[in-house]
């Protein structure tokens, strides 16, 4: 019921204060009951008292309870906010540390985990746990007071109290079978909904939107039934807890009346038992009403901490590296994705130098993109060595690598902010003059100048108000703003027009004069001006050389261009 990992992140002080405040509030309630009992017992015995002082004390106690209730609500909000911020910080830091690795969760699952998952855990921590600890203390406090009046009814009520948490525990064991699939169903439903929303244009094009809608509706219905089953179980457990609560209170009252009949208890004592019996079981009854919160919180707690416990790449010890990156040497590199065979990279060796334009080519799945990620130490557990100059890549810290090298691909994102803000994401210190220079390098100056807001023009999410070529050139301009020493461009000319493709390639050739540029592509005509070309197949380098050399000797080059010529002739003949 309690995950100790939670207390390593959350502040225990706020939780303890909540329990203390509730105990003080309980003490004030008991004080009010004592005054009322005192007045009633004297009234029954025919003793007349002045009521001004007792009622003044009751009013003060009620005001005190009101203040404590508001203070407890404030502390609950504070505990929620502290845990929410702490956990979301931990999750986001973990997400950035894992990066684009095989252990990373899908974006939709991660969003649900850091959103609804933490909300559920927050309710569990801020509401259920304080009530749980308060129940334990309150039961002992009330028992300690009542047992001083008559031990038999006090012990009888105390014996009934454990049946409530036992009921909760029994129901939780049954509910775990539901909850084990509950969160997975929820995240899977969110993932499928996001996928369908993202692919709405495709579904419309193939007239499959209604079929997908029906499929999602069926999944949502299954999830609704699972939720209703959980709530039904909670309501049934509350009924059982009510039986124990009311039975325990009735038993305590009955035994108190018997004790009074045998003159073992005064009128004051029996009235206290009658008034306090309900209060005796109320904290545990309230705990039972939070059962659903607890179960959802426990389920999401496990998911969140399992994610935070995922193994990460060990960060290098070198955090300050002022060398200029001149060479990259790769020796006998092997890499296999987790639980996958065959290896993605096999026995790859190469030497890259500053001032060169290197191209990786090969069919989809040949390993070229994986190798590009390895050059930036983005994947785990490779065998062999990668050296930047004479330094092993694993010795460099993440911050050093990010400062020196950058990977640009078609997945790069443009935020729904101004062009200026998107460019300054790579370098916040850039002036407007420098931003215009970047746009000029990718031939976007004329386009941006004709926009009404120029650099202040706000883009739609991921640059939807740009053409494919304009979007890729703006992403390239942002990469240039980083002033890195190693650039890896993975299929960035995919899906762009011929004009933009030529502009991008010309920009890369110019950039390669002062940096190490690696261009990953499956299109051979994009790499004919490269200084060196490596051909990947099944994770290995099968051919390498200059484009001219490979045109003469490479089977891959010859087969590719033969296929291209046949496609072009077929297209002309069709026309």
List the helices and strands and how they pair.
Blueprint: H1 12-44, H2 52-98, H3 107-147, H4 151-160, H5 163-198, H6 200-205, H7 209-261, H8 267-289, H9 291-308, E1 327-335, E2 345-353, E3 356-361, H10 368-375, E4 383-388, E5 391-392, H11 398-404, E6 405-409, H12 419-424, H13 432-441, H14 445-449, H15 468-481, E7 486-490, H16 498-511, E8 516-521, E9 532-537, E10 540-545, H17 547-553, H18 555-574
Parallel strand pairs: 3-8, 3-9, 6-7, 7-8
Antiparallel strand pairs: 1-2, 1-4, 4-5, 9-10
Helix pairs in contact: 1-2, 1-3, 1-8, 2-3, 3-4, 3-5, 3-8, 3-9, 4-7, 5-7, 5-9, 7-8, 13-15, 15-16, 17-18
Pfam families: ABC_membrane (PF00664), ABC_tran (PF00005)
Keywords: ATP-binding, Cell membrane, Membrane, Nucleotide-binding, Transmembrane, Transmembrane helix, Transport
Protein name: ABC transporter ATP-binding protein/permease
Give the mean pLDDT.
Answer: 80
Overall radius of gyration: 35 Å
Overall, the morphology is: elongated
- Percent helix among the residues? 55-70%
Distance between the termini: 72 Å
Strand order of the largest sheet: 6-7-8-3-9-10
- The figure for the number of domains is 2
Transmembrane segments: 20-41, 47-68, 128-148, 154-172, 238-259, 265-282
Keywords: ATP-binding, Cell membrane, Membrane, Nucleotide-binding, Transmembrane, Transmembrane helix, Transport
Membrane topology: Multi-pass membrane protein
GO molecular function, one term: ATP binding
Commentary on this structure:
GO terms for molecular function: ABC-type transporter activity; ATP binding; ATP hydrolysis activity; ATPase-coupled lipid transmembrane transporter activity. The protein folds into two domains: 4-308, ABC transporter transmembrane region fold (Up-down Bundle), CATH 1.20.1560; 327-574, 3-Layer(aba) Sandwich (Rossmann fold). It is elongated, with a radius of gyration of 35 Å. The chain contains 18 helices and ten strands. The protein has helices at 12-44, 52-98, 107-147, 151-160, 163-198, 200-205, 209-261, 267-289, 291-308, 368-375, 398-404, 419-424, 432-441, 445-449, 468-481, 498-511, 547-553, 555-574; strands at residues 327-335, 345-353, 356-361, 383-388, 391-392, 405-409, 486-490, 516-521, 532-537, 540-545. Mean pLDDT is 80; it is low at 567-575. It has a six-stranded mixed sheet with strand order 6-7-8-3-9-10, with helices on both faces. A four-stranded antiparallel sheet has the order 2-1-4-5, with helices on one face. Helix 1 runs parallel beside helix 3 (107-147).
């Amino acid at each position: 019921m309690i995950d100790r990992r939670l207390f390593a992140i959350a502040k225990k002080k706020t939780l303890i204060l909540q329990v203390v405040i509730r105990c003080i509030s309980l003490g004030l309630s008991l004080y009010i009951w004592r005054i009322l009992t005192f007045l009633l017992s004297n009234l029954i015995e025919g003793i007349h008292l002045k009521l001004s002082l007792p009622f003044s004390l009751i009013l003060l106690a009620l005001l005190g309870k009101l203040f404590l209730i508001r203070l407890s609500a404030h502390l609950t909000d504070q505990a929620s906010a502290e845990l929410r911020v702490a956990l979301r910080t931990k999750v986001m830091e973990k997400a950035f540390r894992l990066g684009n690795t095989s252990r990373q969760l899908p974006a939709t699952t991660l969003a649900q985990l850091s959103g609804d998952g933490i909300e559920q855990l927050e309710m569990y921590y801020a509401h259920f746990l304080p009530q749980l600890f308060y129940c334990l203390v309150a039961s002992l406090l009330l028992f300690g007071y009542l047992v001083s009046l008559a031990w038999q009814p006090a012990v009888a009520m105390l014996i009934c109290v454990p049946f409530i948490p036992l009921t909760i525990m029994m129901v939780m064991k049954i509910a775990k079978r539901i909850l084990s699939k509950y969160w997975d169903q929820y995240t899977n439903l969110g993932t499928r909904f996001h996928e369908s929303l993202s692919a709405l244009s495709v579904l419309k094009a193939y007239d499959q939107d209604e079929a997908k809608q029906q499929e999602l509706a069926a999944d949502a219905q299954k999830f609704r039934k699972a939720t209703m089953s959980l709530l039904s179980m909670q309501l049934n457990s509350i009924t059982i807890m009510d039986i124990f609560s009311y039975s325990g209170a009735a038993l305590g009252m009955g035994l108190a009346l018997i004790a009074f009949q045998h003159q073992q208890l005064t009128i004051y004592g029996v009235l206290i038992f009658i008034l306090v019996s309900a209060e005796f079981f109320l904290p545990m009854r309230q705990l039972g009403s939070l059962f659903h919160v607890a179960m959802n919180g426990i389920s999401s707690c496990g998911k969140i901490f399992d994610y935070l416990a995922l193994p990460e790449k060990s960060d290098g010890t070198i955090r300050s590296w002022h060398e200029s990156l001149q060479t990259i040497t790769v020796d006998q590199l092997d890499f296999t994705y987790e639980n996958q065979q065959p290896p993605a990279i096999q026995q790859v060796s190469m030497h890259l130098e500053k001032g060169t334009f290197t191209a990786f080519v090969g069919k989809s799945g040949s390993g070229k993109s994986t190798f590009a990620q390895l050059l930036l130490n983005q994947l785990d557990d490779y065998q062999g060595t990668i050296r930047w100059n004479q330094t092993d890549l694993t010795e460099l810290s993440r911050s050093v690598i990010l400062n020196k090298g950058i990977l640009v691909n078609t997945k790069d994102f443009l935020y729904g902010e101004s062009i200026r803000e998107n460019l300054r994401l790579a370098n916040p210190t850039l002036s407007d003059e420098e931003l215009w220079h970047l746009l000029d390098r990718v031939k976007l100056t004329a386009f941006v100048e004709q926009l009404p807001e120029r650099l202040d023009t706000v883009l739609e999410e991921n640059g939807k108000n740009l053409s494919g070529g304009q979007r890729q050139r703006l992403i390239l301009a942002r990469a240039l703003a980083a002033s890195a020493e190693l650039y890896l461009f993975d299929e960035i000319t995919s899906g762009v027009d011929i004009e933009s493709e030529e502009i991008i390639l010309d920009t890369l050739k110019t950039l390669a004069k002062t940096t190490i540029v690696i261009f990953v592509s499956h299109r051979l005509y994009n790499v004919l001006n490269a200084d060196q070309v490596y051909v990947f197949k099944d994770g290995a380098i099968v051919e390498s050389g200059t484009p001219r050399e490979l045109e003469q000797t490479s089977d891959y080059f010859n087969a590719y261009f033969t296929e291209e010529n046949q496609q072009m002739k077929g297209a002309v003949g069709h026309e």
